[in-house]
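Project outcomes to date are best conveyed with an example. Our students and postdoctoral researchers have been running inverse folding experiments weekly, and each run begins with a structure described purely in tokens. The record below, which covers 127 residues, was selected by the lab manager from last quarter's runs and is presented without edits.
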């Protein structure tokens, strides 16, 4: 009998949006985090990485979020509440969202018969 267990975590997304109407909201990337710390680290690492490339105001905004608002972020995630942060660079808004989620496990293939073509797969070898 198949036993399905869910795992608690957070679904993290990064969205970009042009404030001049030229760029519609676009999903830039997503990440599944399995703890509050992992979700917080995902956003923090990205903010630290991109802050040198941002204009002065956006860079300052990113560093304020990283240091001044860190406790508020952790509290929200510990309460399993949704959380978001946005930074505006020139005329582009970048938004990171973190929402509580339940993850279903991937189905395993033990004791299941694979299709015949599955055995024909040859992994790519590097010279």
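After processing, the design step wrote out the following sequence:
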């Amino acid at each position: 009998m198949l036993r399905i267990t869910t795992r608690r975590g957070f679904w993290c997304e990064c969205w970009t949006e042009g404030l001049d109407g030229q760029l519609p909201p676009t999903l830039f990337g997503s990440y599944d985090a399995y703890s509050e710390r992992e979700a917080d680290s995902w956003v923090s690492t990205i903010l630290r990485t991109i802050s040198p490339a941002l204009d002065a105001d956006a860079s300052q905004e990113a560093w304020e979020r990283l240091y001044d608002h860190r406790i508020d972020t952790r509290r929200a995630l510990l309460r399993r509440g949704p959380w978001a942060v946005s930074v505006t660079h020139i005329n582009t808004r970048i938004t990171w969202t973190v929402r509580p989620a339940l993850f279903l496990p991937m189905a395993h293939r033990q004791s299941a018969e694979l299709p015949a073509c599955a055995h024909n797969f040859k992994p790519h070898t590097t010279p």
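The chain has one domain: 7-105. The longest helix spans residues 36-50. The training component of this project remains on track.
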